[in-house]
Amino acid sequence: MKMIVIADDFTGSNDTGVQLAKKGARTEVMLSASQKPSRRADVLVINTESRAMPADQAASAVYAALSPWCETSPAPLVYKKIDSTFRGNIGAEVTAAMRASQRKLAVIAAAIPAAGRTTLEGKCLVNGVPLLENRICQRSENAHCLFPHCRDSGVAK
């Protein structure tokens, strides 16, 4: 296995799998971590369905899904798929993915310019509007903050 993708929902896992397959990668999408994949794929996409879980449960789900794949040598590249409007348990899940893969660095890139998600001067924007001023993020399910520095729609520089 060359790459493992961990996604927190059905849509994200399938969209990522399709995009990688379009680029020629032999891709398998597992709709749950308990599914048994074939060993023919270059990329394995695992859906943890952890977006709505409490942070500690989401972290456990990511760790459990990823750690068995990181015990091989060489360890696969890990891609933790996140929501471009920062919904879910991004901090807890990225930390769990780093722990499971024994990585010391994670690069977080949520921008998808074609979908109106951009980053400008350290600010996350949705269609040009700062993330927390956008109606997407004012819905009750998005009201919690994932990273303390996101309170002003900023990202670490």
Describe what this molecule looks like in 3D.
By secondary structure, the chain is of the alpha/beta class. The protein folds into two domains: 106 residues, 3-Layer(aba) Sandwich (Rossmann fold); 48 residues, no CATH class. The longest helix has 13 residues. Helix 2 runs parallel beside helix 3. Strand 5 and strand 6 form a beta hairpin.
3D shape? globular
Helix content: 10-25%
Main CATH class of the largest domain = Alpha Beta
What is the first-to-last residue Cα distance?
Answer: 32 Å
Structural class: alpha/beta
What's the CATH H-level homologous superfamily of the largest domain? Putative sugar-binding, N-terminal domain
Order of helices and strands: EHEEHEHEEE
CATH architectural designation of the largest domain: 3-Layer(aba) Sandwich
Major sheet strand order: 2-3-1-4
Protein name: Dihydrodipicolinate synthase
Domain Four-carbon acid sugar kinase N-terminal: 3-135
Organism: Salmonella enterica I
InterPro entries: 4-carb_acid_sugar_kinase_N, 4-carb_acid_sugar_kinase_N_sf
Q: What's this model, at a glance?
A:
InterPro entries: 4-carb_acid_sugar_kinase_N, 4-carb_acid_sugar_kinase_N_sf. It holds the Pfam family SBD_N. This protein has 157 residues and is of the alpha/beta class.
Features:
4-carb_acid_sugar_kinase_N; alpha/beta; single chain; disordered C terminus; 3 helices; 3-stranded antiparallel beta sheet; Dihydrodipicolinate synthase; 4-carb_acid_sugar_kinase_N_sf; Rossmann fold; 24% helix; 157 residues
